[in-house]
Amino acid sequence: MALDTGMKCIKYLLFFFNLLFVISGFAVIIVGAVIEANYRSYLDFISTSYLSASSILIAVGVLIFVVGFFGCCGAVKENHCMVVTFAVLLCVIFIIQLAAGIASYILRSDVEDFLHQNMFKSMQNYSESNPGIYRTWNVIQHEHACCGTDDYEDWLATSFGEEVNGVPDGCCKENTPGCGKDIFDKSKHPDLSTINTEGCFDKLKGDVEENVTILGGVVIGIGFVQLIGVVFACCLAKSLKRQYETV
Q: How many domains does the chain divide into?
């Protein structure tokens, strides 16, 4: 079954489009797997009640891989059914991505409350028995030169703060073992200049909200690029149908 020159161009453009689609899907799966293997404990910092980012990445990667496979095979074999299936699946992905992108813009104002609430909640579980939260708070406080959620006194209301009568060593300007101990013991006249007293929330919320906005923009942008693939697929499917009807 021979296609005219224009349809052949669309066929090969669709093939290369989907080849890149398949490769990107495979890359997303690998990234998700690496994050799952090496950084899972960090992903639990915000909330363990939500699916981890790594699991979402792997699921999206698999979906992209499958959809791209349909597109490649359909274009190469000039299979009308596979090309139509690809177009429908790509439309579904586009709608989901568009909805996710719009939602990220609409809900970005809620990120502040969500982050604040879960930072306080995670402080209650700060201990070496919870390595993910323990390590995450240590890294955040050290790298951002901050302490607690709103300020260093937040640690007073935690079991860790009550145990050491102070703050984690990650709050100290010079991180040495036991440097945060007895910070709340007024009788020992603690030197607050040795620790960072500002909270971590204000330093994190700007980055999180910015990332949510960027993510929403990228998702919508990729979605519109996928529309090009849908147009190519529809044109090729229409041509294949016409060729079948003339046979």
A: 2
